[in-house]
Amino acid sequence: MRFHIMTLFPEIFNSYMSESIMKRAVEKEKIEVNIYNMRDFSTNKHKKVDDYPFGGGAGMVMTPQPIYDTYMHIINTHNIKDPRVIYLTPKGKVHNQTMAEGFSKLDDVILLCGHYEGIDQRIIDLIVTDEVSIGDYVLTGGELPALILIDSISRLIPGVLSQNESFEEESFKDNLLEYPHYTRPREFMDLQVPDVLLSGNHKNIENWRNDESIRITKERRPDLYKKACK
Ligand code: 6GU
After folding, report:
1. Transmembrane residues, as ranges (predicted)?
2. Does ligand 1 have an atom closer than 6 angstroms to the CB of 90?
3. Which residue from 18, 66, 130, 225 could staple onto 42, CB 3.0 to 4.6 Å apart?
């Protein structure tokens, strides 16, 4: 999978992509991350990328030219046939595990990070295929949401996680939240590890974990619990 990030703040991505599982995924060539500073594509003599909104109002709007030219550069240099362009915006469809699974099957994903009050609507009409939000709160820009998409998508690509890190048993599988985990020591600050986990009885352990998953989901996420029962 190749990610192509369109941003005004390219530096934000370097440290996250240089650690842990993301770093390993790049090294193993399971993912490729290309970062484009849209300011570099501005034809304005001062490299301007924003302007006042027609109709008035607060804040600035990103102008279409640098965005469109960055997009054309990406699809031409990488020979992308049916480009999927995800615009990160609080107005988008809220990201979830099912959407991450869908995106993980693509060869190329272009992530468009907005700033200021937003981007010219004509860019959305012309090139954006998906508008995605990461939740019901407002951030200052699309860079953190883009990293969240990259992370959630990458770990679903075969070979990115090791056997150990497998996503076969984790939260949101079958719309359930994950059961609690324990490790050594058996007693910590007078708190014990549940006996069943020390019993060696695999059937009982599986049943306990399943019951805990259901209990926790019902308590915290009645919306998910309803779907899990279907
Ligand atoms: Cl994708 N962008 C911004 N700026 N704020 C957000 C968001 C995205 N998702 C939730 N809040």
Report:
1. none
2. yes
3. 66
Which atom of ligand 1 is closest in space to residue 88's alpha carbon? 1
pLDDT tens for each residue of 23-34: 999 999 999 999
137 lines ligand 1 (CB under 6 A): yes
Domain 169-229 architecture: Orthogonal Bundle (1.10)
Domain segments of the chain as ranges: 2-154, 169-229
Query: pTM here?
Result: 0.96
Q: How far is the CA of 216 from the centre of ligand 1 (A)?
A: 28
- pLDDT for the residue numbered 84: 98
Read off the amino acid at residue 83.
P
Q: Is the CB of 118 inside a 6 Å radius of any atom of ligand 1?
A: no
Q: Given ligand 1 and candidates 86, 88, 124, which is best to mutate, with the most ligand atoms within 8 Å of its CB? A: 88
Mention every residue, 6+ apart, whose C-beta is less than 8 A from residue 76: none
What residue type is assigned to position 192 of the chain?
Q
